[in-house]
């Protein structure tokens, strides 16, 4: 007896099939992974025609789905193939840093790798012989059993106890640093909840420049120039070919009377062509009526500190009350001075006003995304909490305004360390000056986009504080500040956040954890390996909530960077040769394109209006990033290998293989993924936008297609129960299928999606996921 045809299920299935058919045969084949088509029911559908079709066409639709999955798998395979080819190119033609092979740390890590490889071979032999289950006795007659028994005796009685003690010390340091991080986050929450902000006793009107030379007569309001203090604006630079014009332009359009300011372009370039370009830019702004000077040192000693010290020695500096400093890649907004100078009014003991950095290229690649997480926490949590509660923090070297009297009283710029900004901040704090941090005032700048540039920057940032701590330790003890401030400087500012953090990160996760796999009598708890670091990563990522999808890469990458930070900390503390090395961070001028378009469009020799300076706000940075992705540098990318990271990668992967013998699940996965992360960084793949992000997107797209195939199949199995509820449940299932597709697409994007809706002639509604 034949079963009666169920027209209700056929009607639902035909609609579902039509949706899949339209999605598959979309005209824009290149964008089908980034677009979700959500169709509303068509009013002109003929139900009779649908009922004449057989539900057996499910197999045809499934075949189409499998073709889509096969295409996505091919895309994933292609992405990983490109990844392997890039890695092969790095290995076959390396251009490694010159000091990698000769560094003390690198030689020590190589010895450590040889030891763990020998131990792994030894343990594998013991495992296959069954000695792990029934350890041999020291009285055994066979030589191999006797050697293994003696190894167990030495391991249990002589090696494991000191390793466990050292592990416990590192765990205590880890917990202390975690408590400090939690306290900082709680302090930030309190500031947000109570809306605590620095208050200025006066406020300037944010209008066009009040200078008579910059507006037509009769149109400007009468302004008392005495209300505007004399401000010196300094732009130190050295061979900054890519970014010199954008920083000069941004500073020259400050909404401040020309009679009350002076711009100093402090050029330390040794490239004659770059010097001529900077001079031409300065002359252009001089012709527009901006008070700007070009200074070039013939004897370039002291790096940035020497450059600033030389500029402050000019006779005319005594006529100025404040000095604002901007690095060559920084673009202050036109109202920067009007938003910072008022805080000095009525606060005679205020020496520094520091503003927040924002980044034009934070979404350029995986490396810049991870840097954005770190620096967002640094500014919004560390700097803000320290500024509110103790009126002290480390000066960031740029995007800040100093009272010149404070600089002179504390001794000015000194050339004794590579962190002259922190040096002058500590000395000013010891002299009793207070600092204010403004989280609402942002200054656009650029992040290093290559691992090599970022590594050199971090080496300087972590070796310099140790140099400074060694130099000024006794000065802190002899200073007249309170005991609380001395304790904060020594224990929190220097020891905990500059020394202990890189020390325990490297030793705990790169040395102790692999050793505990070969010395299982010494235990490193799972909560230290996984749970507490995960919670700390969540706290670190709170100021940048859009970066939550990168929380696991962030945790692994921070452990990877601990090698560089530990090496820099040791170099600075013990005065190794490379601790005084200063290398200018490479910039690409990501934000210069919009500036050139804006300023070249206006040929009038007047200070441009606010609308002319589009790139100084974050609203147009996404469009600027899209513009820059189409304009890549013509220089061929150098093939770099970072040997320390590669050797540690093999150490961790070897330890992960040993952890399988002990059945330590969490430790195995952590060592495996951490080793892979070291391998990716060592092959210099962390800055490859197309390779890494493209592979993640392809994998996510494949997962979405698999789920879109499984959901209709699961619905097919539950169709008899759903038919009893007729059309209502069928529509719910249809909507659920599309909602699942939308969720998968949102997961696939690497940044927050924005939805835009548009209608077509057929009554359909299409929601496009626009990737910013």
UniProtKB/TrEMBL annotation:
GO terms for molecular function: glycosyltransferase activity. Gene3D superfamilies: Spore Coat Polysaccharide Biosynthesis Protein SpsA, Chain A. The chain crosses the membrane at residues 108-128, 166-191, 499-518, 641-660, 666-687. It is found in: Golgi apparatus membrane. The keyword Cell cycle does not apply. It is a multi-pass membrane protein. Pfam families: Glyco_trans_2_3. Keywords: Cell wall biogenesis/degradation, Glycosyltransferase, Golgi apparatus, Membrane, Transferase, Transmembrane, Transmembrane helix. It comes from the Eukaryota. Residues 323-519 form the Glycosyltransferase 2-like domain. Belongs to the glycosyltransferase 2 family. Plant cellulose synthase-like C subfamily. This is Glycosyltransferase 2-like domain-containing protein. It comes from Malus baccata (Siberian crab apple).
């Amino acid at each position: 007896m034949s079963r009666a045809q169920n027209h209700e299920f056929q009607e639902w299935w035909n609609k579902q099939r039509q949706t899949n058919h339209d999605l598959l045969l979309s005209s824009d084949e290149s964008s089908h992974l980034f677009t979700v088509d959500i169709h509303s029911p068509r009013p002109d559908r003929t139900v009779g025609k649908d009922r004449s079709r057989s539900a057996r066409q499910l197999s045809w639709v499934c075949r189409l789905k499998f073709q889509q999955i096969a295409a996505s798998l091919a895309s994933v395979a292609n992405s990983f193939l490109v990844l392997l080819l890039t890695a092969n190119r790095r290995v076959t033609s390396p251009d490694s840093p010159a000091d990698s092979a000769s560094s003390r740390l690198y030689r020590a890590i190589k010895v450590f790798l040889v030891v763990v490889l020998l131990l792994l071979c030894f343990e594998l032999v013991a495992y296959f012989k069954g000695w792990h289950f029934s350890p041999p006795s020291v009285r055994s007659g066979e030589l191999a059993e006797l050697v293994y028994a003696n190894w167990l005796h030495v391991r249990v009685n002589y090696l494991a106890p000191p390793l466990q003690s050292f592990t416990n010390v590192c765990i205590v340091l880890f917990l202390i640093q975690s408590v400090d991080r939690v306290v900082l986050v709680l302090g930030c929450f309190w500031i947000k909840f109570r809306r605590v902000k620095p208050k200025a006793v006066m406020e300037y009107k944010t209008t066009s420049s009040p200078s008579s030379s910059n507006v037509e007569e009769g149109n400007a309001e009468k302004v008392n120039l005495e209300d505007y203090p004399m401000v010196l604006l300094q732009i130190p630079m050295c061979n900054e070919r890519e970014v010199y014009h954008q920083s000069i332009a941004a500073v020259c359009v400050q909404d401040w009377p020309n009679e009350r300011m002076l711009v100093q372009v402090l050029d330390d370039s040794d490239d004659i062509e770059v010097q001529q370009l900077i001079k031409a830019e300065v002359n252009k702004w001089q012709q527009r009526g901006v008070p700007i000077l070009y200074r070039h040192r013939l004897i370039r000693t002291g790096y940035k500190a020497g450059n600033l010290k030389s500029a402050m020695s000019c006779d005319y500096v005594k006529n100025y009350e404040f000095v604002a400093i901007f690095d060559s890649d920084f673009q202050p907004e036109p109202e920067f001075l009007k938003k910072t100078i008022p805080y000095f009014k009525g606060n005679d003991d205020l020496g520094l006003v520091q503003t927040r950095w924002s980044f034009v290229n934070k979404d350029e690649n995986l490396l810049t995304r991870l840097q954005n997480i770190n620096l967002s926490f640094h500014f919004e949590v560390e700097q803000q909490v320290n500024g509110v509660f103790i009126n002290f923090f480390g000066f960031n070297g740029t995007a800040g305004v100093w009272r010149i009297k404070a600089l002179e009283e504390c001794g000015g710029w000194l050339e004794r360390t590579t962190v002259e900004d922190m040096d002058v901040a500590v000395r000013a704090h010891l002299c009793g000056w207070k600092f204010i941090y403004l989280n609402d005032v942002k200054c656009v700048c650029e992040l290093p986009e290559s691992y090599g540039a970022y590594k050199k920057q971090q080496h300087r940032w972590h070796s310099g504080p140790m140099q400074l701590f060694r130099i000024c330790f006794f000065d802190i003890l002899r200073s007249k500040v309170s005991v609380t401030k001395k304790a904060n400087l020594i224990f929190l500012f220097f020891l905990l956040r500059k020394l202990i953090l890189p020390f325990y990160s490297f030793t705990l996760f790169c040395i102790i954890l692999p050793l505990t796999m070969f010395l299982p009598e010494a235990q490193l708890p799972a909560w230290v390996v996984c749970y507490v670091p995960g919670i700390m990563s969540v706290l670190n990522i709170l100021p940048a909530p859009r970066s939550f999808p990168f929380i696991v890469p962030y945790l692994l990458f921070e452990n990877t960077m601990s090698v560089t930070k530990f090496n820099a900390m040791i170099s600075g503390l013990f005065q190794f040769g490379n601790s005084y090395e200063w290398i200018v961070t490479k910039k690409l001028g990501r934000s210069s394109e919009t500036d050139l378009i804006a300023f070249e469009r206006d040929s009038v020799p007047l200070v441009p209006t606010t609308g002319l300076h589009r790139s100084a706000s974050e609203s147009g940075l996404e469009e600027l990033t899209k513009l820059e992705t189409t304009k890549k540098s013509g220089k061929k990318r150098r093939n770099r290998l970072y040997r320390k990271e590669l050797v540690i990668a093999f150490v961790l992967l070897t330890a992960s293989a040993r952890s399988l013998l002990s059945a330590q699940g969490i430790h195995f996965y952590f060592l495996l993924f951490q080793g892979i992360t070291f391998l990716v960084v060592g092959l210099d793949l962390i800055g490859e936008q197309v390779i890494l992000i493209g592979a993640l997107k392809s994998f996510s797209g494949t997962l979405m297609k698999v789920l879109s195939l499984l959901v209709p199949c699961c619905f097919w199995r539950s169709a008899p129960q759903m038919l009893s509820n007729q059309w209502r449940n069928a529509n719910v299932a249809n909507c659920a299928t599309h909602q699942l597709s939308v969720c998968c697409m949102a997961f696939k994007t690497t940044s927050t999606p924005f939805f835009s809706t548009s209608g077509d002639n057929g009554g359909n509604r299409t929601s496009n996921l626009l990737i910013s």
